[in-house]
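A brief tutorial aside. Many learners find it easier to grasp structure tokens once they have seen a single protein encoded end to end. The record that follows does exactly this for DNA-binding transcriptional MerR regulator. Read the sequence first, then the structure, and try to relate runs of similar tokens to stretches of the chain.
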Amino acid sequence: MAWSTREIADLAGTSLRAVRHYHEVGLLEEPERRANGYKQYGVSHLVRVLRIKRLTDLGFSLSQIAAMGDADDHPEEALRTLDAELGATIERLQRIRVELGLILKQSVPTDLPPEFAPAAADTHLTDADRSLVVVMTRVLGPEGMKTYADMLQNVPHDPVSAEFDSLPTDADEETRQRVAEQMAPYTRDLQEKYPGLLTVNADAPGGEHFARQTVGKAMRDLYNEAQIDVMIRMQSLLAEPRPTDPA
């Protein structure tokens, strides 16, 4: 009994193109040809195509099937390896589903990790602020991330933030100094409430210098010249003792 390429494809429940591809990658031996030049497939070819199709349906790649050889025995080691890979994939997909559920439930941006989702949902972050948070999540270590996420989630309203956010790049000297002086007490209170903010880069995977350098570059890209100047002035003010503190 001999079948044509199309007939063996139909019998195996696959496509003509798939059978031809199996030949091209060396998974299926070329059959003999009739006098008219047409291929004639036998039972061994059908069994081989069915095995290839079964293994691909289970999740094996063609390269993995090729590594198994032509033997039709029980490839226990390959099956166990695939089972472990599928288990890891299922765990990853389950984590993704949890994150998707959180994103859908809280309508949070997709560019923030799950621990920052409540903060993004509960605070009114500007586009610049959110982009900065995204950058920080890429350079901070576990402790730094936790401190920063906790702070964002519980951050009190800053009455000066709106003015800072809308500060034009040509803001005059007096305005810059006033905004810095108004922001300093609020920022100092945050640092006292979350002392980890002062060492937020301590466990950065790439090192403290890399984290500071990366965040600094992001801030220069995200905020205008006047806003950067206000932040520098504010840091200078924070380095000074409180007005009520002894000198």
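Self-check: The domain at 5-72 is CATH 1.10.1660.10 (Multidrug-efflux Transporter Regulator; Chain: A; Domain 2). If you spotted this yourself, you are ready for the next section.
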